[in-house]
Amino acid sequence: MEYRSHFSCVAGCEGSYDIEEVIYRCPKCEELLEVRHDIDLLRRRSPSAWIQLFDERVRTNRWPYGSGVWGKKEWVAPGVDDDCVVSLHEGHTNLFWAERFGKDLGLDDLWIKLCGNSHTGSFKDLGMTVLVSVVRQMIKNGKPIKVVVCASTGDTSAALAAYCAAAGIRCAVLLPRGKVSTAQLVQPLANNALVCALDTDFDGCMAIVQRLAVEPDIYLANSMNSLRLEGQKTVGLEIVQQFDWEVPDWIIIPGGNLGNVSALGSGFNMMCALGIIDTRPRICVAQAEAANPLYLAYKKGWDKFEPITASPTEASAIRIGNPVSIRRAVRTLKKFNGVVMQASEQELAEAAAAADRTGTFACPHTGVALAALVKLRQQELVKRNQRVVVISTASGLKFVDFKVRYHKGHMEGVQGTLINRPLELPNDYDKVKNALLGALDT
Question: Sign of the C-alpha dihedral, residues 44, 45, 48, 51?
Answer without folding.
Answer: negative
